[in-house]
Amino acid sequence: MQILRSKAPLRISFAGGGTDVSPYPEERGGAVLNCTIDKFAYVTLEADPGRAGGTAVESLDFGLTANYERPSDLLYNGELDLVKAALKTLRPPGSGETWNDWLRLFLHSDAPPGTGLGTSSAVTVALVGAFQHYLKEAWTSYEIAELAYRIERTELGVKGGRQDQYSAAFGGFNFIEFNGTRTVVNPLKIRPDVVNELAYRLLLVYAGGGHYSNELIESQQRGYTDRRPESVEALDATKQLAIEMKNELLRGNINEMGELLDEGWQLKKKFTDGISNPHVDVMYAKAREAGALGGKLTGAGGGGFLLLFCDFARRAEVARAVQAAGGRVTDFSLEMLGLQTWAVRAERDSERIRAGRTARATPGS
After folding, report:
1. Which of 73, 164, 236, 262 is catalytic?
2. Average pLDDT, stretch 316-344?
3. Is residue 362 assigned to a domain?
4. Active site annotation includes 38
5. 348 in any annotated domain
6. What domain count does the chain have?
7. pTM of this structure
8. Contacts for 232-237: CB closer than 8 Å, 24+ residues apart
């Protein structure tokens, strides 16, 4: 029995989100600034080449289990479709439309999909990482991110951009540029004191609900392709804002972050209708009154997690204000590592080692 485990970090986006969604980056070029956090998507892959082919899947997040005897069983029906798309892409069939070996996949994550932290893409990257180890492939971080993008966007047809897959694969602070079909990840070396101060000033608040990103992103795409002036101008300004925020962060100008986050949030709401809602608007207003200098929803919009930048002396007041408004403050740290995959020692090997230690510790043995 071979046991492999993989984890990929979730992310918070500071600026530029939306400019990575086609066709904008192909036509005008996009840019985003984000950082990964210590919340993860996990995948365990167990392989038993001695058993007949098949795939068992268990998802803790959705409380679902499934067994697929052959590739033709991978039909999209709204249940575990992301895993099915990954299996279709990463697990070629053997002879006679069957699999040559048996696999079991177990998945869970620290935040549910649809809450704006890039969970679905992190799960996909973790799946790619587990299969990379299993197949003994030498894929680069770029290739892993592109495979994850292809699984989600091409094979499964889920609407969205490219930043989440690259963020999960690379980890840390990244300024990511999208030029045509070419993506360039620029890892940022932020001074430790700046990282610590930024982490201290940020609050991550679950505002409730989630979002249906397909609908929001389709609406955003229509606003751009129809050349609606407000949508196009907001996207252009958002891209420029990502560049400005990256420069301020590299200079260590922390106080500029709050103002720029607020500016970005006001621009984001111009992409299309439904980015915000009355509940989020009230919570954000309460946070601002209590001392938040700025903030934004971390994903496509509609709900999920609200990222707030606070005056250091009023951070506790902001936390109380958003909790009184129905929010839930979530503890987190900034995470500098991306995808990680490792092999787990088989249980029988562990038992053998323990037995050996016991024998050595027994007098007269």
Report:
1. 164
2. 96
3. no
4. no
5. no
6. 1
7. 0.91
8. 233/270, 234/267, 234/268, 234/270, 234/271, 235/18, 235/19, 235/24, 235/28, 235/271, 236/28, 237/267
